[in-house]
From TrEMBL:
Residue span, YCII-related domain: 22-102
Organism the protein comes from: Hebeloma cylindrosporum
Gene3D superfamilies according to UniProt: Dimeric alpha+beta barrel (3.30.70.1060)
Any Pfam family the entry gives: YCII
Name of the protein: YCII-related domain-containing protein
């Protein structure tokens, strides 16, 4: 574990793209476990582990506010000591374990913001 001179762990930011599966039944699974996912996400946000996170949807959610929002996946900015810590969190999320997110398409990359967040 890398530490600073004051023994505080060095935390890095990571971008996560977690698209939903496209198979039938994915939306129903998402909705069935959504509240449990949100509880965990809220805890992660309150602790500073998740800096920002949310649902991805189709452009018509903005261009046609009356159109139903089609949920496509999730995205996050995490702040953690390692990419492994983020990966463990994603793989423990109810959306991952219940088959909402497509594990073959999840992207976790270091993120360097051009502006303070």
């Amino acid at each position: 574990m890398s530490t600073t001179s004051s023994s505080n762990p060095i935390r890095h930011r990571f971008f996560v793209y977690a698209p939903d599966k496209t198979e039938d039944g994915t939306l129903a699974r998402r909705l069935a476990v959504r509240e449990r996912h949100l509880v965990g996400a809220k805890e992660g946000h309150e602790s500073g582990f998740i800096r920002i996170g949310g649902m991805l949807t189709t452009p018509d959610a903005v261009t046609n506010p009356e159109a139903p929002r089609k949920m496509l996946g999730s995205t996050f900015i995490f702040e953690a000591e390692s990419i492994e810590e983020v990966k463990k969190s994603i793989e423990g999320d109810i959306y991952y374990t219940s088959g909402v997110w497509d594990p073959e398409k999840i992207v976790i990359l270091p993120f360097f913001s051009a502006f303070p967040i």
